[in-house]
Design goal:
Length: 388
Amino acid sequence: MSESDRRPVPLGTVIREWGRIGAIGFGGPPAHIALFRRLCVEERGWLTAQEFEDGIAATNLLPGPASTQLAIYCAWRLRGRLGAVIGGICFIVPGLTIILALSALFLSAHPPRWVLGTAAGAGAAVPAVAVSAAVNLLPASWERAGSERSARVRWMAYLAAGGAAAASVGAFLVLVLIICGVIEMAIRTKGERHPRRSPSAMVPAAALPVITGGIASLCWVALKVGALSYGGGFVIIPLMQHDAVVTYHWMTGAQFLNAVALGQVTPGPVVQTVAVVGYAASGLWGGLLAAAIAFAPSFVFVIAGARHFDRLRADARVQAFFVGAGSAVIGAIAGSAVPLGMELAHLWQLGILAGAAVWLFAFRGGIVPALVGAGAIGLVAVFAGAPS
């Protein structure tokens, strides 16, 4: 069926279905992709399988939460720009509502003891979740690097650089990722003439000085989260942690661990962690503002660029850039476990961390069950007398 033969999908249907997926989409991007594939391709036939896969491939090239961009893209294919805006908002709002409500509970001045125990338990599992997320990305990235020995050596170097940056210099992580991408792009496209701007033009944006003062600083942090999070939300965690805990002191390290856990157990992308940071900085309106700014680039990238996705995917420079940046991203996601793990304040949390690692790697269990189970164990531990 050609696009001209398709009947327009009512906006009411987009509102209902995108909102439904936003409300039940526990499990991160894999769950979101499966739900949208079932809806748009298998059940309704709104998109062909090839169109849907092309959408996945294109949105994976963009910075920001890929599953959110896929939601926006699918709605754009069905109802144009208005559909994209409405569909994206409906997908985001359910998870955002839940995470802000939980933020009010977890970040209150005197949270109940059961909240403290649950948060400490779930937060203890977060470093293992970060490593698990990185491991799951390794095979596809390794294959993308190619079979040449020199390319694979560079891939391992980028992986190590990303991990080291995330573990030690979180504030400059994005610069490291971009540099890795630019190096690989220069090597793979050596001798070719490209008059247009390359991804290296993004370096100055990442190198801007820290903005100090109130709402401006919150807006800057949220913009970095939304516009510079290559490879998914977890890669921006070290940068967000440095800003929220070290630079602006909006929350403690333990509270940030809880924020990451909330971003994992609620439906929607882990980028919604920025809403918890915004809530800690400036209450409910701060959380809403941070979320709006963090998700805004995704709408801009998809709505303005969707017509050019085919050309973007065919661009050798773009592909080369993401070979280098992509492997560095995976290293950074794994490396984020170091600063996250250093925030664990009690010895009993190390036991939960070890248990979560066994669940995720030995039993290949899911992330959401790992965090929920860790939270339950933390609850029991605190009521049994463990410090919180």
